[in-house]
Design a protein that fits this description.
Blueprint: H1 10-14, E1 20-22, E2 38-44, E3 53-54, E4 60-67, E5 70-74, E6 77-81, E7 87-90, E8 97-100, E9 104-111, E10 118-120, E11 126-129, E12 133-134
Antiparallel strand pairs: 1-2, 2-9, 3-12, 4-7, 4-9, 5-6, 5-8, 10-11
């Protein structure tokens, strides 16, 4: 392996950084460091849901279903990903939330990768690379 090559396993590596495999939050010397894009391998047990909606989104996102049934909530719309390969894309300014109807694995790609999206829980511990939240209620069924 050279300094510009990294070989890993998404399942193993994702467990080390809340699912995130690539983005600005990796060390600058790591080949997985990028300010252009972020990649997440999300493994979600049945019933797992985002605690609050992401609001004020400044990035574009692509979420692809690898396995399971996964619902993405968008303003005025609920999108069910049920077949392997189903995906949804949303752009800047689109608030969102999600719910795992079954145990699910999803691949998320967001761009650009920008600092300031890491959220901490009430104890100050990092809970994920996200943005500000509101307690808005979904307008779609979940």
């Amino acid at each position: 392996m050279t300094d510009s090559v990294y070989v890993g396993n998404a399942g193993s590596d994702a467990a080390l950084d809340r699912g995130w495999l690539l983005g600005h939050f990796k060390e600058a010397s790591d080949p997985r460091h990028s300010v252009a894009v972020e990649v997440k391998w999300g493994v979600h047990p049945q019933g797992d849901r985002r605690a609050q909606w992401v609001t004020g989104e400044e990035r574009t996102a692509l979420l692809v279903l690898i396995s399971g049934r996964f619902r993405v909530e968008l303003p005025g719309r609920s999108v069910l990903l049920a077949r392997q390969g189903d995906y949804v894309v949303w752009g800047r300014g689109v608030d969102h939330s999600w719910f795992a109807e079954e145990e699910s694995v999803v691949l998320t790609v967001r761009w650009p990768s920008v600092p300031g999206y890491e959220v901490t829980d009430e104890g100050g511990f990092a809970a994920g690379h996200s943005h500000s939240f509101s307690t808005a209620t979904s307008t779609g069924a979940s």
